[in-house]
């Protein structure tokens, strides 16, 4: 996460990156462009999220020649306090920027379902004030890098910011959405079912026990869940369990048998077979490859975010 402080005229191009990126204007204005779409002006409190890290441009005015934002430019702009400063004679703009890293071999449960660009305006009557409050706190934590817990606080605020951006998008009346668990959240019954499955993936669920938990018939549960989510409840549960297992294999040192048990498999052999069928390799090899890739990424360094 960084603060980009620039005075016009300026224009930078940010290359495509693995993971997501967002930019939030905290003061002044700027123009945002991606792909063949026309330039869009952002004002204070406006935020854009790029769930798949698409290549894009930010500028003080549309049509200016861009400078590629790479490590060399980043080193030339960064100040001792960590801010990225670009001096000029024109108007000042401050932008809070950050990236979300996630494994590309497993579709992110939220970001993978979103459109290439989400724009949330500060003028939105419901979400705008909340987003502005979170952005103010994020800006404060970014300025207070040396303060105790500032890094942890900033990460948690980023998570909270993502939640509110997705909420704002879901609340948009004309949003078009394919069947997915995210669409399921708009149906109160399916949202309840998803909450139970996400919270307790290791339980011994059957269609009967799941229907009883939410007080509907098996037929109603199966019909509504499949309509909104795009697959039957137990098929979704199997995929969710294996995604949770993949995250645990990458991010923890828990034994494979313990992970299998946590996600509802009583047999490690059955878990290994199901995991290999979904992810193309058994859990042990998946964990070793993930560790190797993480080390290689650490050596290379990630693509900078302005």
UniProtKB/TrEMBL annotation:
<keyword id="KW-0010">Activator</keyword>
<dbReference type="Pfam" id="PF12833">
    <property type="entry name" value="HTH_18"/>
</dbReference>
<dbReference type="InterPro" id="IPR037923">
    <property type="entry name" value="HTH-like"/>
</dbReference>
<keyword id="KW-0238">DNA-binding</keyword>
<dbReference type="InterPro" id="IPR018060">
    <property type="entry name" value="HTH_AraC"/>
</dbReference>
<dbReference type="InterPro" id="IPR009057">
    <property type="entry name" value="Homeodomain-like_sf"/>
</dbReference>
<dbReference type="InterPro" id="IPR032783">
    <property type="entry name" value="AraC_lig"/>
</dbReference>
<protein>
    <submittedName>
        <fullName>AraC family transcriptional regulator</fullName>
    </submittedName>
</protein>
<feature type="region of interest" description="Disordered">
    <location>
        <begin position="279"/>
        <end position="306"/>
    </location>
</feature>
<keyword id="KW-0805">Transcription regulation</keyword>
<dbReference type="Pfam" id="PF12852">
    <property type="entry name" value="Cupin_6"/>
</dbReference>
<dbReference type="InterPro" id="IPR050204">
    <property type="entry name" value="AraC_XylS_family_regulators"/>
</dbReference>
<keyword id="KW-0804">Transcription</keyword>
<feature type="domain" description="HTH araC/xylS-type">
    <location>
        <begin position="191"/>
        <end position="289"/>
    </location>
</feature>
<dbReference type="InterPro" id="IPR018062">
    <property type="entry name" value="HTH_AraC-typ_CS"/>
</dbReference>
<dbReference type="InterPro" id="IPR014710">
    <property type="entry name" value="RmlC-like_jellyroll"/>
</dbReference>
